[in-house]
Amino acid sequence: MAGEGNRDAAGVLHLDPRTKLLIMVLFSVVVMFDVVDGPAYIVRTIMTFIPVVLVCLEGKVHIGARFTVLFIAATLLQSFAQQNIHGMLGMIVLFICYMVTQFAPTVIMVGYCITTTKISEFMAAMVRMRCPQGLSIAVAVMMRFFPTLAEEYRSIRDAMKMRGIRFGGGKVTKMVEYRLSPLLFSCVNIGDELSAAAITRGLGAPVKRTNVCEIGIRKRDVLILIATTAFTVLYLHLTLQHGSVIA
Asked: Are 144 and 1 in contact (CB under 8 A)?
């Protein structure tokens, strides 16, 4: 896929794609339950920083640091807003803080999986799990779509800055028009290019796919899966014990 060579998927851990998928599933289950205090909240907070640790071990410490600051700020602001901000403004602030604390860990985990998994490794994992080829190809294209779209947006943003179209530049009203319109056209082109690249690489061909990459469940995969699963089971037990319901 386009842009695959720009990523360093080796990292420190180099987890198996199946391990990453299972961790994402566990985090998705955790997101369904909402707690605000008690032992379950402590367990949830610990789980929140599992993706941060994984991201930092891949050399992206700045992403982990930004998320940590954002999570702490959102938690403190949420506590402050509950006591001191009322009305519509308070609802908006609480909603934003809730979205950060509730869903940001899963977003970080998804980003970690996308940026540290080669498409060839992902396809090999899908073959071993005997997933339908149509599903595997769709997910593979999607995994490259969002990073490529982000690169395109950064290019458009830099071009607009050179033309003075930015906040405080006197052309704020044109930001949406000059950034969103090129981005929408880029989405169509990126989708077509990625689809063509997938066909060129033989994805979808009626033959058994072979891979030269090596994947496998190793000790580190087992340890991380055991830890994540244990935290998830403990979190669900504590949440249900206190009578919490699915959010």
From this structure: yes
Give backbone dihedrals phi and psi of 33, rounded to 5 degrees, phi first. Answer: -110, 135
DSSP per residue, the chain: -TTGGGS----SS---HHHHHHHHHHHHHHHTB---SSHHHHHHHHHHTHHHHHHHHTT-HHHHHHHHHHHHHHHHHHHHHHHH--HHHHHHHHHHHHHHHHHHHHHHHHHHHHHH--HHHHHHHHHHTT--HHHHHHHHHHHHHHHHHHHHHHHHHHHHHHTT-STTTT-GGGHHHHHHHHHHHHHHHHHHHHHHHHHHTTTT-SS-----S-----HHHHHHHHHHHHHHHHHHHHHHHTT--B-
Maximum C-alpha span of the chain: 63
Give the pLDDT confidence score for residue 226 in this predicted structure. Answer: 92
pLDDT for 172: 58
Average pLDDT over every residue of 61-71? 84
Please check the confidence at residue 134 and state whether its pLDDT lies above 80. no
CB 219 within 8 A of CB 21: no
Q: Residue 163: how many CB atoms within 10 A of its CB?
A: 11
